[in-house]
Design a protein that fits this description.
Elements: H1 2-16, E1 37-42, H2 57-63, E2 71-73, E3 84-86, E4 102-106, H3 121-132, E5 149-156, E6 159-164, H4 171-175, H5 185-191, E7 206-212, E8 216-221, E9 235-240, H6 244-252, H7 265-275, E10 279-294, H8 304-312, H9 316-323, E11 329-331, H10 346-349, H11 359-372, E12 379-385, H12 388-403, E13 408-414, H13 416-426, E14 431-437, H14 443-446, H15 464-475, H16 479-496, E15 501-513, E16 516-517, E17 535-536
Parallel strand pairs: 1-9, 12-13, 12-14
Antiparallel strand pairs: 2-3, 4-6, 5-6, 7-8, 8-9, 10-14, 10-15, 11-15, 16-17
Length: 538
């Protein structure tokens, strides 16, 4: 199984062009400098501090530096889908024993949480039990990533063992997911599983100083950090700036050095024109896609014909040409990151609902389906997130696309907190913007978003045949089998049932002040956010 995964990953690296590039050239290796504060801007509010429940960059960018992981993607090689290194574990990442069904991690000695308590294997076990086997009512956005895990336990203070139900090449990448921050068993037992929504106690490179809601999050260097010599920074300030124009002005005026999520092409060009070699640009394909999620508990969206019509109305091929000039979206694709060998080819995509190249024919079919479902002229609420790129841009485009088949969508834009509450708590929407933005490129884990059993299934549906297909996908032992089953899974999820409608995959552009050193772009805005490898050349 490991060999199968490695072959897929190698193919990705060779074919995807994910290596970062920089305007002005990379130059020679420079001596790292210590000191200084990194100011960066964040274009979203913080719904909570608990990364286990959240899925937004608005949390991971300001909060991830306070925490450590069991393992992580190599911060010096973050574009690689297979280069994993120990964070809290010692030595090399284990390869698995007992037919790749047992993974044993040795935990570093001497690591302490910021409150001074020792970090042991029992803290890691408690964390992963919260992620994989959460109690009733406790959200876990990545629970479905670990369907292969049977148990996790600590035979002693320095050893963590994962037992799998079956071998899976998706396991190690799932462990490396940067949202899997390690929490204190003491905090979980004493304060409950909701404590981390509003409180922080990690073992990361920086300790929490303060959070001024709507303004900034501040962290300072943790002298007891377990990676010797790091971090290089004295501290950081994550500045809240929901409007893109303000974020651009902050970088242009050097009030901030970087926005880790990214800007559209014109913003990049304007910064380079204005600042020249004071700006460095890194670019990458992006493992992130916006989708639409109909609420199937509300009529008529429980009818697959209506959901198909929503998808058929959208001109993805034309939208790619137009939107890529003004937004951080670009590539037409299915459920898998388009550059991966498991992704659908164009010949395979055009067979799916909503992917045909004749948009007039697709829209004619949409009108027929709406009429048959008694939903012609349907008016509905469309929930969107108050993030300009690409949510509001794509949302406005979708409203116009649906109008062309006689549908009238009233767009309701909310800040991140209320938006997520609408999705998770009240389900008070007809159709909502949704997204599948993952970190490590791990297609078999990434597509769990489409399962009814997923912790982030906001469409409120159950689909046992889809669950059964996914179970076969998890157990597939060859690339050929994985690819065949993935097409079956994709067809049912977004074509036959149209549980979610995929728009366009994103493209990542990160212009930043050239004095920011050590940070390398990844095909995800969630990776490489510990900030322990960044230094300032000022």
């Amino acid at each position: 199984m490991r060999n199968v995964y490695s072959r897929l990953a190698l193919s990705l690296v060779v074919g995807a062009g994910l290596a970062f590039g920089a305007v002005g050239g990379a130059g020679k290796a420079e001596a790292k400098k210590s000191g200084g504060t990194l100011n960066f801007v964040v274009g979203s509010k913080i719904p909570s501090y608990d990364l286990h429940r959240e899925t937004t960059f608005g949390v991971i960018h300001p909060i991830r530096p306070f925490y450590s992981l069991l393992i992580r993607v190599n911060p010096d090689n973050p574009s690689s889908p297979t280069d994993f290194v120990c964070d809290l574990c010692e030595g090399k990442v284990p390869t698995g024993t007992d037919g790749f069904t047992k993974y044993t991690f040795k935990i570093r000695n001497g690591v302490k949480f910021h409150d001074g308590t020792p970090l042991t294997a029992h803290d890691i076990v408690a964390t992963y039990k919260k992620i994989i086997f959460p109690p009733e009512g406790i959200p876990s956005a990545r629970k479905a990533f670990f369907k292969m895990v049977d148990s996790v336990f600590a035979p002693d203070n320095s050893t963590v063992v994962f037992k799998l139900k079956f071998p899976s090449g998706a396991f190690i990448p799932a462990v490396a997911t940067p949202f899997n921050i390690i929490m204190s068993e003491k905090d979980l037992n004493k304060n409950g599983f909701n404590w981390h929504k509003k409180n922080i106690n990690g073992s990361g490179a920086f300790t929490f100083v303060q959070h001024q809601p709507g303004s900034f999050v501040e962290g300072k260097k943790y002298a007891g950090y377990h990676h010797k010599g790091q971090p290089y920074l004295d501290g950081y300030k994550a500045i809240a700036a929901p409007k893109m124009a303000i974020r651009l002005q902050a970088i242009r005026g050097d009030r901030a050095a970087i926005e880790f999520r990214g800007f559209p092409p014109k913003a990049r060009d304007d910064l380079v024109k204005a600042l020249g070699d004071k700006i460095t640009v890194q670019e990458s394909d992006w493992n992130c896609v916006l989708m639409t999620t109909p609420n199937q508990e509300r009529k008529p969206f429980g009818d697959a014909r209506v959901r198909k019509a929503l998808s058929l109305a959208v001109d993805r091929w034309g939208g790619s040409k137009y939107l890529s000039r003004i937004a951080i979206v670009k590539t037409v694709g299915g459920v898998v990151f388009p550059k991966h060998p498991l992704a659908a080819t164009k010949a395979e995509l055009v067979k799916l609902t909503g992917y045909g190249t004749d948009i007039n024919a697709s829209r004619a079919e949409a009108k027929k389906l709406l009429s048959a479902a008694g939903a012609s002229g349907l008016k509905f609420d469309f929930s969107n997130r108050a993030v300009d790129q690409p949510y509001k841009v794509v949302g406005t485009w979708l409203v116009d696309q649906w109008k062309k088949v006689g549908l009238s969508a009233k767009q309701r834009v909310q800040p991140s907190g209320p938006f997520y509450a609408t999705l998770r708590k009240s389900s008070d929407f007809d159709v909502s913007i949704d997204f599948n933005c993952q970190s490590v490129i791990n297609p078999i884990a990434d597509v769990t978003k489409f399962l009814g059993s997923a912790g982030n299934n906001y469409g409120n549906y159950a689909d046992q045949p889809l669950e059964d297909i996914y179970d076969r996908l998890l157990r597939a032992g060859t690339e050929a089998d994985q690819r065949k089953i993935m097409r079956e899974y994709e067809k049912r999820a977004i074509s036959d049932q149209a549980h979610l409608g995929i728009t366009l995959w994103w493209y990542k552009i990160n212009p930043h002040r050239s004095y920011v050193k050590g940070w390398k772009i990844a095909p995800s805005h969630y990776l490489n956010q510990s900030l322990d490898n960044i230094w300032l050349d000022k």
